[in-house]
Amino acid sequence: MKTIRLLIIGIALLVGANQLSAQTIINNDNTIQNRAYLRIGIEPTTMLTFGYQRNIAVAFLKQPITTYAEWGVSAFRFSVNNSELKIGGILPVFEKGSFKILNNLNLSTGSVATRHFNSKKFAVADEIAIGFYKKKWFFATTFEYEKILLNHIKHTDFYKESYYEDVKDGWYKGAGGMFQFGIEGGKTFKEKYDVHLEIKMPFTEKFNGYGGSPLHANLGLAYRF
Fold first, then answer.
1. What CATH number does the domain containing 139 carry?
2. Residue 178 vs residues 61, 147, 168: alpha-carbon distances, Å
3. How many folded domains does the chain comprise?
4. Quick check: 74 and 84 in contact, CB under 8 A?
5. pLDDT, tens digit, for every residue of 149-158?
6. What pTM was computed for the model?
């Protein structure tokens, strides 16, 4: 399992290094190459996320890719403490004027700390966004699937003392996946400042209701440069 962790860390460092050297924004504005953002919302707990995007020119694709990295933490730490690191890239797969179909592929690692256990996950997700992307605004419908590849569970002393002393900690095959369907939109003010809103409805792989909030909603603020 150490090999898997080192591999994921290595990928994260490689993508992170690329982001420090170059990135692009999906809206139709070729003068903008970077974007730093702050997002707060429910997904499914209340999360505060810091992120950075940069356009990278890829010669063989003949178009830039918007790469990004973001780090999210629990905004209010009550009974659950969440954190997540996500890296990925956004690539237009179809464009006609301001109409675009975008593919957003990302890797993530996250942790959840509760009174009973601490859990770590490693996942991959892919999202398709279909919509209109103007220079100063955009609106799209989104379809996303996330697959948890691997989990590590470590039970707390409280759990062992209160429920089952001989419970086993360890690595487990990923606990399934999640679909999300939603809408998102944004507006740019004074050519530098973005406001972004997204609302998504989550489902299990069997299209049952997802635990936690019935809707995931995020409000974001960003600065372009």
1. 2.40.128
2. 30, 7, 26
3. 1
4. no
5. 998 888 888 8
6. 0.78
